[in-house]
Amino acid sequence: MQLTVSSDSALRTLICLGKKNAPVTIAEVAEQCQISKSTLMKVVMTLVGANLVVSERGRNGGISLAQDAKDISVGSVVRLMENSLALVECMKDGTSTCPLLPKCRLKHVLYTAQENFFSTLDNTSLADLLRD
């Protein structure tokens, strides 16, 4: 399993914002987190839409966390940013053409592993990632 660039960029952006007490410009985040501005703009739009980040225009504007870091779970960010969480084709909603279904046990094993993965992420907050 590999997370997309969007998830990685979103998590790095949130960590960067969590370390600041003031709004940060897109250019500053892009440079500090080594994310392209175009990717960062898309990520920030999604984070703003989910009320995880606020964006302020103007001279003293920029982006900052919309919530306390302890209230943002890593799992919720990953779920927000990933287009599909299906590890294999048979885990897709009702579209599987796998000839081994319905008797194959692999789907259940992978589903359980994924649930354990997300349980760990859900129990990890942005604040946990910001601790020294």
From TrEMBL:
Pfam families hit by this protein: Rrf2
Q: Which domain of life is it from?
A: Bacteria
Q: Name one GO molecular function term.
A: DNA-binding transcription factor activity
Which InterPro entries does the UniProt entry name for this protein? Tscrpt_reg_Rrf2, WH-like_DNA-bd_sf, WH_DNA-bd_sf
DNA-binding as a keyword of this entry, yes or no, is yes
Annotated GO CC locations: cytosol
Print the keywords alphabetically. Answer: DNA-binding
**UniProt-listed NCBIfam families:** rrf2_super
State the name under which the record lists this protein: Transcriptional regulator, BadM/Rrf2 family
